[in-house]
Amino acid sequence: MLLNFDAGPAALPREVLAQASAAILEYDNSGLSLLELPHRGKIFEAILEEANSLALSLLGLNDDYQILWFQGGGRLQFGMIPMNFLGSEATAGYIDSGHWAAEALRNAHLYGQSRVLGSSQADQYTYIPDWGAIPGDLAYLHLTTNNTIYGTQFHSFPETTVPLVADMSSEILSRRIDYSAFSLIYAVAQKNLGPAGVTMVAIRKSMLDQQQRALPEILSYRDMAKNNSLLNTPPVFAIYTSMLMLRWMQEKGMEAIENESIAKATLLYDTIDNSPLLYGVAQPGSRSRMNVCFRAHDDKHTQQLLDFAAARGIVGIKGHRSVGGFRASLYNAISLADVERLVDTIRDFEKTV
Ligand code: PMP
């Protein structure tokens, strides 16, 4: 198998893939494939229940929160947030820390007013912008806590009484933060959680009464919550595999996950900082532990290193098409040994130049 540092769909642990594959052939001696299970039957009910309780427990959230599973990816959440929570006369705050943050903001204009409380766009999103004072009358404040394309990450969060809404797609459950500071957290599965096709939402139940307009049920957090994510036929495979990944994380423990994440990022950033050929893109104070973005001083080394790594079975380190260079994504399924392999490859490449 290749060693995959892609930003998503991302690597999953072999043991999770093995269990998911076995379940497709036959789910736990039930005589049915996972893909044939009735979504309102006892078996899937137990899978969903386990996924929900594992997610709450790993996030350190209590009964004030509910876990929901949506299709439609991050982009659907970009639309659903203002659709549900931004009245036409109200204003929502957004921190413009990258492409996905800007895409989320673009959707707010469709439903109400918005205010940008800090942007690093003029500097190619190389840092997390300052946000200044947060007006107390905002409907909510939206942030993208980890910016997948630019390799930046919030290392502290705005302190405000305004409900915080966060896109944590590319960092969910990689570090211990106070998740209860947020009223709504969403994360597409295909990075830290599982396969594409499902998005996990943790929502404070008091938010469910805040719906601002009539909506089709499938676009309403309130109605989805009332139906425990089973308004329509859910993506059973994606939820099951995410549950396996949550179990995997539970076994490791959040402390070990966070410590390994720090060790992985430190090793790779140190290698880049000490490289005669490479340099880091994000400003040091804003560096992401999840997506490490770097470039070659001399452009001709970019393709050469990509080819050198590919010959050693390392893929997915090409930067996003909009920024170029390199990006290595160090999500939870990537081990410290995997990063050591990448670092050895970079060092060996340097010797060839
Ligand atoms: N938010 C973030 C932070 C992302 O990195 C991405 C995709 N890479 C998205 C949202 C969009 O997710 P999707 O393609 O599932 O809509």
UniProtKB/TrEMBL annotation:
Class of the enzyme per the UniProt entry, highest EC level: transferase
Keyword Nucleotidyltransferase (UniProt): no
Pathway assigned in UniProt: Amino-acid biosynthesis; L-serine biosynthesis; L-serine from 3-phospho-D-glycerate: step 2/3; Cofactor biosynthesis; pyridoxine 5'-phosphate biosynthesis; pyridoxine 5'-phosphate from D-erythrose 4-phosphate: step 3/5
Top-level taxonomic group: Bacteria
Residues with N6-(pyridoxal phosphate)lysine modification: 191
Cofactors, names only: pyridoxal 5'-phosphate
A biological-process GO annotation: L-serine biosynthetic process
Alphabetized InterPro entries for the sequence: Aminotrans_V_dom, Pser_aminoTfrase, PyrdxlP-dep_Trfase, PyrdxlP-dep_Trfase_major, PyrdxlP-dep_Trfase_small
GO molecular function, one term: O-phospho-L-serine:2-oxoglutarate aminotransferase activity
Cofactor mode of binding and number, as noted: Binds 1 pyridoxal phosphate per subunit.
Binding site for pyridoxal 5'-phosphate: 74-75, 100, 148, 167, 190, 232-233
Binding site for L-glutamate: 40
Stored HAMAP family: SerC_aminotrans_5
Record family assignment: Belongs to the class-V pyridoxal-phosphate-dependent aminotransferase family. SerC subfamily.
Summary of the function given for this chain in its UniProt record: Catalyzes the reversible conversion of 3-phosphohydroxypyruvate to phosphoserine and of 3-hydroxy-2-oxo-4-phosphonooxybutanoate to phosphohydroxythreonine.
PANTHER family xref list: PHOSPHOSERINE AMINOTRANSFERASE
Name of the protein this chain belongs to: Phosphoserine aminotransferase
